[in-house]
Amino acid sequence: MLVWSAAIAAAGFDVSIFNGLWRLAGTLGGRILLCLVVVCALFHTVDGLRRLVLDGARDVARCDLAARLAAVFLTAALGVPASLVILWPALGGQR
After folding, report:
1. DSSP, residue by residue, 25-69
2. Do residues 33 and 39 make contact, with C-beta atoms less than 8 angstroms apart?
3. Is residue 71 part of a domain?
4. Domain range for residue 52?
5. Does residue 22 fall inside a structural domain?
6. How many domains does one find in the chain?
7. Burial grade of 29 (CB within 10 A; 0-12, 13-18, 19 or more)
8. Which residue did the predictor score with more confidence, 22 or 51?
9. Which of 23, 53, 59, 73 has its C-alpha lying 20 to 30 A from 29's C-alpha?
10. pTM to 2 decimals?
């Protein structure tokens, strides 16, 4: 997010700065950082939905541990494929 924000800000100043930031985002390190952001956003979303459901239905609160495990599972189930899609070009998957 920081790289994207800086790139948008740099676009108004100098095109070479903008291009340099996008080159940086295309490296393996930049892609790993993007994977971390995606996984964190997924977990934040899924865990927030879990909290909404548990707060809305008090009788379901006894299933909190199962809901936490489901949140972690969904994060992994969605985060791993998303990370592979992001990392694939940097790992030589693009031909």
Report:
1. HTSHHHHHHHHHHHHHHHHHHHHHHHHHHHHH-GGGGGGHHHHHH
2. no
3. yes
4. 28-87
5. no
6. 1
7. exposed
8. 51
9. 73
10. 0.75
